[in-house]
Amino acid sequence: MSPNNGKNDHQPENRAAPARRRGQVELRGEQAKTVQSDQYLLDSMEETPFTKTDPWRVLRIQSEFVEGFGTLSELGPAISVFGSARTPRDSPYYAMGEEVGRLLVEAGYAVITGGGPGAMEAANKGACQAGGVSVGLGIELPFEQGMNEWVDLGINFRYFFARKTMFVKYAQGFIVLPGGFGTLDELFEAMTLVQTQKVTSFPIVLIGSEFWGPLWHWVRETLLANGMISEKDLSLVHLVDEPSDAVRAVLADTAGHTGP
Questions:
Q1: Range of lowest pLDDT (32-46, 63-77, 127-141, 227-241)
Q2: What domains can you pick out in the chain, each with its CATH number?
Q3: pLDDT tens-digit series, residues 224-241
Q4: Residue 226, Cβ neighbours under 10 Å: how many?
Q5: Distance of alpha carbon 192 from alpha carbon 174, whole angstroms
Q6: Measuring CA to CA, which residue among 196, 204, 200 is closest to residue 235?
Q7: What mean pLDDT is reported for the chain?
Q8: What average pLDDT score do residues 207-228 get?
Q9: Pairing label, strands 110-113, 204-207
Q10: Fewer CB under 10 Å: which end of the chain, C or N?
């Protein structure tokens, strides 16, 4: 037997490098540095091969909607839970996420998150440990960390807009933990959809008045004060401090409602 006891001397040096997903494809090493699908779609103006042209992308986009609709069509009542991927496991917000996931399952709901780490992992963990359905909707990102281990049903998307449609279409409401730009994006899009009556009977609940309070103060004192929104628009969102109050608000607003 050779001195290496049969082990391969030619193992790639960077196999520990983080993986990035592109739809159903997992990329590592140099392959993970390729341009994202969304970036090709929104940013590229140069000539590209046919498989990267807009007509071809239409088929790929269509396939993502078909995959999402087919996978989630029989999910049943669900709530989408958002929050920062950077929330550490020893954070009080992480503990809140776990409790939210658990309470939603106990109330008869599946839990949908972005499938990543942090607050998303916490909600998936709470749902999974409570014996419920734990869903993750992942997205191709340059710093992708993969689907968290508590996701039972996961779908990876190339395109943000296809993924965001699934968050709304298959949920009866949103619970939003503290988060960054991605969380704010989902929050304000949901508020706009409710304000414009694209979805109805769709509760949006923010957890953490200390975190969200300054933002909501700005909404009231700047947007409302300048006539950019109406007084009734302020009622689109519930602001609470406890996971139990968040779930209670969702249950109150979704009573008798089967979907947006």
A1: 32-46
A2: 66-254 (3.40.50.450)
A3: 999 999 999 999 999 999
A4: 8
A5: 13
A6: 204
A7: 85
A8: 97
A9: unpaired
A10: N
**What's the rounded Cα separation, in Å, for the pair 202 and 182?**
20
Q: Would the pLDDT of 79 be above 70?
A: yes
136, 175, 224, 226, 241 from 233: Cα distances, Å: 30, 18, 9, 14, 21
43, pLDDT greater than 80: no
Q: Are strands 20-22 and 25-27 parallel, antiparallel or unpaired?
A: antiparallel
Packed helices 92-106 and 119-129: angle between N→C axes, nearest 10 degrees:
40
Coil/strand/helix, residue 76: coil
pLDDT at 12 over 60: no
Question: Residue holding tokens 């780490």?
Answer: 117
Residue type, 140: E
Mean pLDDT over 87-96 rounds to: 97
Structure tokens at 199: 């979805």
**Cα(38)–Cα(67) distance, integer angstroms:** 18
Q: Which residue, chain included where needed, has tokens 């769709």? A: 202
Residues 6 or more apart from 177 whose CB is under 8 A from it?
81, 82, 83, 84, 87, 93, 96, 97, 100, 119, 122, 123, 183, 207, 208
List residues bridging with 26 in a β-sheet.
21
Distance CA(40)–CA(173), nearest Å, equals: 32
